[in-house]
Write a structure and sequence with these properties.
Layout (H helix, E strand, L loop, with lengths): L11 E3 L8 E3 L6 E2 L4 E10 L2 E7 L8 E2 L2 E3 L6 H13 L3 E12 L4 E10 L10 E7 L12 H16 L5 E7 L5 E3 L5
Parallel strand pairs: 4-9, 8-11
Antiparallel strand pairs: 1-2, 2-3, 4-5, 4-7, 5-6, 5-10, 8-9, 11-12
């Protein structure tokens, strides 16, 4: 952000008393801009013992598999966004359940909420940002071609929880370890 949305003046970075990091501040009108994390939702939708994945048709991670996911729009609830993403990316109608996981992704300035959902039917098809959409049994999941570590962690925890007979709630801080891969802090050695 380079210009003030209130008065149009060029912003500067300034340390402010009590803040832990420099903030973007307008020297003309004094407005302070906080660059808060963007909110992402994902839909862990299942039909029986199979889960829905989408092969991305956009960057980042073009051609790799992920849960239907995307940013929450202004004025939209996280639950409405999760249902919308499943419909947009996989043409899938879901019955949304509860939040299943929360990921803090500081290097991407994001928070991600993963919702559980059931698919009305296993049939799905690619949406405008998706190359392919289909349901997978655990043994069929293309683990090496998953787009994001959050997808991998959510899926692994989901299948572990199903085997244990209890779907818990999971939280992880995801730390960047390379430009291509990240690993949740809770899962690092």
């Amino acid at each position: 952000m380079n210009f003030c949305s209130e008065c149009g003046s060029r912003l500067s970075s300034r340390e402010r008393l009590g803040d832990r990091a420099p903030r973007r501040v307008c020297p003309a009108c004094g407005k302070v801009f906080y660059l808060d994390p963007r909110l992402v939702v994902a839909c862990l939708a299942f039909h029986g013992d199979r889960v829905l994945l989408c092969r991305r048709g956009v960057e980042p991670a073009y051609g790799r598999w992920t849960l239907p996911s995307g940013f929450v729009d202004a004025g939209e609830s996280t639950s409405a966004a999760a249902s919308r993403e499943a419909l947009e990316e996989a043409r899938a109608t879901v019955t949304l359940g509860r939040p299943y996981a929360l990921f803090h992704i500081p290097h991407a300035n994001q928070m991600q909420v993963v919702y559980l959902a059931t698919l009305a039917e296993a049939a799905c098809e690619a949406g405008s940002e998706t190359l392919e959409a289909r349901v997978f049994a655990e043994a069929e999941i293309p683990w090496a071609d998953l787009a994001f570590v959050t997808t991998q962690v959510a899926l692994r925890r989901y299948f572990e929880d199903r085997r244990d007979g209890l779907l818990g709630f999971h939280f992880s801080d995801v730390v960047e370890v390379s430009a291509r891969r990240s690993v949740p802090a809770a899962l690092r050695p």
